[in-house]
Amino acid sequence: MARTVRVELGERSYRIHIGSGILADLGHIVRETLPRATRALVVTDEGAGPHYLDRALAALRAAGIEAGSATVPAGEPAKTLSEAARLYEACLDTGLDRDGCVVALGGGAVGDLAGFVAATFLRGVDFVQVPTTLLAQVDASIGGKVAVNLPRGKNLVGAFHQPRAVVADVTTLATLPAREYVAGLAEVVKHALLRDRGLFALLEDETSAVLARDPALLEDLVERNCRIKGAVVSADEREGGLRAILNLGHTVGHGVEAVLGRVEKGEPGATPREGLLHGECVSIGLIAAAWLSRRAGVLAQDDLPGRLEDLLRRLTLPVRLPPGTDLAAVREAMRYDKKARAGRLRWVLPVRVGQVQVTEHVRDEDVEAVLADLSRPLSG
């Protein structure tokens, strides 16, 4: 039986459905959630489509919903205004009206793009998230932030447009490349640090099963993460306060990603390069936050940095910067962090496992010292 988590947003509340094999229930879920919907456009990418598009279309059609489809490039290259324009045409070709819906089948980039199209086509139509990556199931598909990129930056054109339902089938994680799956675990660790000591202990105790993608364990992990993210979004939909805690690990992480992150062929205004995945940058950012917390006098659990580093290493996530990293460039990139206010960075620092504090009182010299420490190779 599928598990459900409810995101409470008044008349825009929605359920997250979590289970093994529940992609087959997609049509039933859409029909139950959107009884007036007779047409749907399924937007997928080149990674998820070959595995799951036919199943999604069959499930929708079995429920009496006429469904068309459109496939976009995998990853960030899909998040462009030109791809959005192509999807608007696909919406028209499918005969979508205001009672129809857009279904996002794939990773976080597909959700961002399809959600943006849903938010703007006919001044807004419903959409349903069907995330097929761990990062999307535990984080990106929840919260309603949708956007496309411009050549001068990511997510510069967007909206808040909540899904009407999220359908997280954990069996889709079986086809995810190992590196992408592991990168998604960084957000799981982040959520555990934020609000769930039990989840942190579970990750420590069941590391091998987590890496083996045990389906029963994955259902539990995804549900617990959705409850954490869902509760934060319910309390602060538009980042007015509490939602800032979700940026734990992302201040240094985004700086690292700007300098060392993977850039895919087709991203506007960028030269392709191999590099770190988002979750890998977050992993390094989590270590930085733990060390900064100690230096800032915020840390109240002395063994937290060591336990965190040990867990991330066992999950095969990076805990140090690659050799030769330009630390000045990382610092410069951090200046453009979206959480900054009046030129001051707002840091999310762990107090203990399950509790964090947001502060602006972090000294520049401590940041420089931590980055220097992160650039030194691991001992032992």
UniProtKB/TrEMBL annotation:
Pfam families: DHQ_synthase, DHQS_C. It is an enzyme of class 4 (lyase). Pathway: Metabolic intermediate biosynthesis; chorismate biosynthesis; chorismate from D-erythrose 4-phosphate and phosphoenolpyruvate: step 2/7. Its cofactor is Zn(2+); Co(2+); NAD(+). GO terms for biological process: amino acid biosynthetic process; aromatic amino acid family biosynthetic process; chorismate biosynthetic process. Binds 1 divalent metal cation per subunit. Can use either Co(2+) or Zn(2+). GO terms for molecular function: 3-dehydroquinate synthase activity; metal ion binding; nucleotide binding. Its main location: cytoplasm. NAD(+) binds at residues 108-112, 132-133, 145, 154, 172-175. Residues 184-340 form the 3-dehydroquinate synthase C-terminal domain. Catalyzes the conversion of 3-deoxy-D-arabino-heptulosonate 7-phosphate (DAHP) to dehydroquinate (DHQ). This is 3-dehydroquinate synthase. It comes from Caldinitratiruptor microaerophilus. The gene is aroB.
